[in-house]
Amino acid sequence: MASPLSQFEIKTLIPIEVFGYDISFTNSSLAMLITISSILLFMILGLKSSNIIPSRKQSLLELSYEFIANMILDNVGKSGMKYLSFIFSLFMFILIGNLLGMFPYSFTWTSHIIVTFSIAFFIFLAVTIIAISKHGLVKFLKFFAPSGVPKPMLLLLVPIEIISYLSRPISLSVRLFANMMAGHTLLKVIGGFVFVLGANSFIIGGALPVAFLVALTGLEIVIAFLQAYVFAILTCLYINDAIHLH
Amino acid sequence: MDIESAKLLGAGIAVLGVIGSGIGIGSIFSAFITAVGRNPEAREHVFTMTMLGFALVEALALFALIIALLLLFVF
């Protein structure tokens, strides 16, 4: 039987090599392309005949728009609304990517650390640049020294603040990657139980793991949404930190 | 002890980190139930924060799980 981790294997579909770098079109790139085209399809179909009284597709689109808009208004405020398009596309990209990964035999590109890390790292860079350009370098560095703390305590607090700031992209990316990878591995392991128990006990024994698998698939779909939500809301909180610098 | 059994033991010990996450998730949801019990009006607002806290705590359990999987399949 195949290892439960073999589903994350990257296969080259169209080999491309530029200046000695391997930039082949892989099954991961294909999964991302499918993700983007399904988001585009969702948008185009939803806005094809936009009315004041929305159709079903349009109201689904408005629902997702308002969801993100309210998230930004609650967490950042009016000044964060210019980042709406970024956070909306980020949320949709991760959400659809996670959900498409739930189809059998499909590929979950969010289960690869390098993909999530590069998204998180660019968010981290952008947030740092926003903070510095809005408040200047000196005020930005004061962010690491909480006010109203006795001087000797700063010796301990400043390194902790700096480490916690620098670990943001790591925790943000590992959270998404680990959730998707652990969830899909778990599904495969339980699927293996179905196979083994069903083969050894005249199919009846396989029923229990199948029931468990169905429940677990439901949980995974919730997790897929939840992780996209958490990714988006943490991005909102980081942007809030950058804009307001408490 | 040979390398193979040390790897298995290490993976088992690494998964112990999930205990802390279990305690954390329990306390988050108990606080959520208490809050909704006292003020059912606040349910919507508290629920989003509960989900955020749940995801943050659950991620810690997965960090431990990742270490265990790395020990088992990568090294």
Keywords:
heterodimer; A: 246 residues; mainly alpha; 4% strand; B: 75 residues; 87% helix; elongated
Question: Quick recap of the structure?
Answer:
The complex is a heterodimer of chains A (246) and B (75). By secondary structure, chain A is mostly helical.
> Overall pLDDT of chain B, averaged?
87
- Architecture of chain B, according to CATH? Up-down Bundle
Low-confidence stretches of chain B: none
Helix segment tally of chain B: 3
Which sequence of SSEs, written as H and E, runs from N to C of chain B? Answer: HHH
What does this structure look like?
The complex is a heterodimer of chains A (246) and B (75). Chain A has helices spanning 27-47, 56-75, 84-100, 113-142, 151-166, 168-200, 207-244; strands at residues 12-14, 17-18, 21-22, 25-26. The relative contact order of chain A is 0.13. Helix content of chain A is 71%, strand content 4%. By secondary structure, chain A is mainly alpha-helical. The model of chain A has no long low-confidence stretch (mean pLDDT 86). Chain A has a two-stranded antiparallel sheet. In chain A, strands 2-3 form a two-stranded antiparallel ribbon. In chain A, helix 1 packs across helix 2 (56-75). Chain B is mainly alpha-helical and 75 residues long. Chain B has a single domain (3-74), classed as F1FO ATP Synthase (Up-down Bundle), CATH 1.20.20.10. Chain B contains 3 helices and no strands. Chain B has helices spanning 3-14, 18-38, 43-74. In chain B, helix 1 packs antiparallel against helix 3 (43-74) and helix 2 (18-38) runs antiparallel to helix 3 (43-74). The longest helix of chain B is centred in the C-terminal third of the chain and has 32 residues, at 43-74. The mean pLDDT of chain B is 87. Classes of the chains: A mainly alpha (246), B mainly alpha (75). The A-B interface holds A 3, 5, 171, 174-175, 178-179, 181-182, 185, 226-227, 229-230, 233 and B 51-52, 54-56, 58-59, 62-63, 65-66, 69, 73.
